[in-house]
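Progress note, sequence design subtask.
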């Protein structure tokens, strides 16, 4: 054994002595305590990875694991997700959607009362109208990824990462994303749901449906996009870049939002069919999955989906496409025993608002509020974390 190997490995006797245990106990620890070892050529003995022995000597749990406080979002005071409900800082999201404005809920979840009224509109980058025109065929998320760095550059206060500064820039981010979602050239200081409704040319009933939708979309605890945002926030990115990270992650094909086009196509088939049931029956007969009728993080019914369905019913009770959707939901539930997913109903609202190819854009506007709440919490309450990986590859010999 050369000098380098001596630094990396211990003999069985050395390892047992260092841990103060017998050899039989050491052999048992190999599997129970994740001690890695290497067979000595030409003999029946083994050498033991010194770092693992040192770890056990210090009383740590798993090879390469990080202590509890070194995990991103080890704890959070923002959203409680249960089998039967969802709560923003202890308040039922369904109840909030009945009576609150989007701004009130954002200020509650950010813990910064009055920040929307106190925040003037951000400066616009030069030539932004021309830029937006050139990006006419791009999605809301794609536009934001391109424009947010330019907007941040014009607004140096975005680099104020104090709790109040983070929330103040958060207002700018939300307003800008709402503007991009509806094709506007600039944000407005008006209530978000009214600005979106007026920009899309819909009436007050639709405006209230938009308000409810935005609130229901704000947060869903530590979903993969939110976790990704918190990882970025831990290193100290600005709210604009936290939003960019969340929007990029939301396009992942493993996520339901990343597969939103599949749900949208299903919805299109339902709305164009004779009675709404044909697309469901065809897929079921062929053994295909039913997009928009997925499992969720709640016991069975997602309370957000149920609330959204009731809100749609209040506005579109006699709408032909909605009646087809209700029939499709009835048949799909009978066949799959799954209720409609929140994403399906969100897509339907986007369809009725004529957000062509952008049916879930409202979801992004709402969710960025939650992302920024998590980003601010992670940055303010955690030091720079450096988690460690549990290495399972080949050991050096």
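Output:
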């Amino acid at each position: 054994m050369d000098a380098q190997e001596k630094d990396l490995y211990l003999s069985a006797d050395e390892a047992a002595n260092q841990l103060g245990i017998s050899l039989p106990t050491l052999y048992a620890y190999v599997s129970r305590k994740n001690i890695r070892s290497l067979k000595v050529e030409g003999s029946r003995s083994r050498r033991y990875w010194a770092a693992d022995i040192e770890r056990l000597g210090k009383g740590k749990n798993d090879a390469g694991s990080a202590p509890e406080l070194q995990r991103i979002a080890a704890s959070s005071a923002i959203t409680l997700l249960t089998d039967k409900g969802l709560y923003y800082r202890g308040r039922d999201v369904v109840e909030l959607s009945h009576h609150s404005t989007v701004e009130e809920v954002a200020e509650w979840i950010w813990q910064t009362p009055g920040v929307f009224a106190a925040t003037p509109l951000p400066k616009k980058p030069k030539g932004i109208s021309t830029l937006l025109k050139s990006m006419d065929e791009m999605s809301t998320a794609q536009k934001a990824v391109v424009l947010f760095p330019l907007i941040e550059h014009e607004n140096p206060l975005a680099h104020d990462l104090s709790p109040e500064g983070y929330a103040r820039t958060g207002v700018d981010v939300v307003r800008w994303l709402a503007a991009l979602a509806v094709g506007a050239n600039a944000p407005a200081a008006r209530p978000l749901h009214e600005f979106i409704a007026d920009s899309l040319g819909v009436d007050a009933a639709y405006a209230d449906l938009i308000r409810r939708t935005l609130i229901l979309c704000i947060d869903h605890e530590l979903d993969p996009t939110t976790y990704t945002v918190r990882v970025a926030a831990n290193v100290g990115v600005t709210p604009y870049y936290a939003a960019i990270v969340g929007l990029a992650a939301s396009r992942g094909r493993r996520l339901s939002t990343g597969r939103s086009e599949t749900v949208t196509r299903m919805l299109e088939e339902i709305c164009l069919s004779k009675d709404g049931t044909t697309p469901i029956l065809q897929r079921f007969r062929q053994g295909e999955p039913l997009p928009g009728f997925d499992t969720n993080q709640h016991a069975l019914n997602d309370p957000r989906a149920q609330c959204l369905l009731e809100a749609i019913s209040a506005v579109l009770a006699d709408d032909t496409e909605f009646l087809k959707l209700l029939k499709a939901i009835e048949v799909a539930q009978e066949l799959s025993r799954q209720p409609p997913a929140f994403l399906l109903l969100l897509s339907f609202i986007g369809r009725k608002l004529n957000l062509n190819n952008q049916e879930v854009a409202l979801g992004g506007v709402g969710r960025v509020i939650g992302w920024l709440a998590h980003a601010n919490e992670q940055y303010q309450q955690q030091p720079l974390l450096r988690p460690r990986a549990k290495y399972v590859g080949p050991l050096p010999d």
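The CA atoms of residues 276 and 327 lie 6 Å apart. Work on this subtask will continue into the next period as scheduled.
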